[in-house]
Amino acid sequence: MKLKIAVLAGDGIGPEIVAQALNVTQAIAKKFGHELSHQAAIVGACAIDAVGDPYPEATHALCMDSDAVLFGAIGSPKYDNDPSAKVRPEQGLLAMRKKLGLYANIRPVTTFPSLIHQSPLRADLVEGADFMCIRELTGGIYFGRPQGRSEDGSTAYDTCVYTVEEIERIIRLAYSYALKRNKKVTVVDKANVLCTSRLWRQVAQQLEKEYPEVTTEYMFVDNAAMQIIQWPKRFDVMVTENMFGDILTDEASVITGSLGMLPSASIGIHTSVFEPIHGSYPQAAGKDIANPLATILSAALMFEYAFNLQAEGQLIREAVDASMAAKVITEDIAESGKAYKTSEVGQWIVDYIQKK
């Protein structure tokens, strides 16, 4: 099979972790006899510095011409610490989502036996937790207009907008994944306060009738935030709007014990993007200490979701599990044991794949 991917490493630790994920991707392609082609492009702060645009047209054209996008991270203190900056790296991410039609972000939340003791929650609460957060990506308050500040700067305003089409598309996606899992969907909203949330609930209640084999529940976002901590094993597929999903998925990530372990997939109309959920971690850039496992697991999602190659994705997961069992891990999860470098972890996983 021919696999064509765009590689957007981005800022901070992005180039280092993406390099390891790309090495793993190449090892898998060779192992299974696939023809892999890849091309790199700039995005984020490095793109602003180079051409003044966090998501240049050349980068967009490459993504549109690719079957999948392997993405690192964006963000830089240079822009984070400058409130007057007119262009920011994060605007590149929003532009990419909009232009590529990335309407759904999927984050699997899975616990790893060797990391359960690092979770801030009790082991009995998190052991066996395995659910999926599906977040709508292109609507809501992040994209609604009008948005801005008054002329004197004393007032700021944002607008939350959703259409029936946007909501229906993401709810149907949630049901499609629930049918492959444990047949339960939790729709998270704030329907007791927000008009957009009431529309979400109305659309979901209409679609619920089409999926009688799936249990559907509705939960206010504040209750969901509490339930994720108190009883994470109660969830199977959680679906929600953009800002709620942004917050809840970051909250859910701590269950695993390390942000460096969680991958994500952004499903789009034109192509799909696969990336770790952690940030650019500029303090670690160039030091070869960042955890590459979330990015490597994002490559596993890429094989499964973009190319429908399940065995390839599963072998990557097996290799990651093996590296953790062998304690070939970076300093963020190594505790008192030996900490391996980013490149060493990546090479160990490549070697494991080649030996299988």
From TrEMBL:
It catalyses: (2R,3S)-3-isopropylmalate + NAD(+) = 4-methyl-2-oxopentanoate + CO2 + NADH. Its main location: cytoplasm. Transmembrane segments: none annotated. GO terms for biological process: L-leucine biosynthetic process. Pathway: Amino-acid biosynthesis; L-leucine biosynthesis; L-leucine from 3-methyl-2-oxobutanoate: step 3/4. Its cofactor is Mn(2+); Mg(2+). Residues 4-349 form the Isopropylmalate dehydrogenase-like domain. One of its GO terms (molecular function) is NAD binding. Binds 1 Mg(2+) or Mn(2+) ion per subunit. One of its GO terms (cellular component) is cytosol. Its EC number is 1.1.1.85. It holds the Pfam family Iso_dh. Keywords: Amino-acid biosynthesis, Branched-chain amino acid biosynthesis, Cytoplasm, Leucine biosynthesis, Magnesium, Manganese, Metal-binding, NAD, Oxidoreductase. NCBIfam families: leuB. Belongs to the isocitrate and isopropylmalate dehydrogenases family. LeuB type 1 subfamily. This is 3-isopropylmalate dehydrogenase.
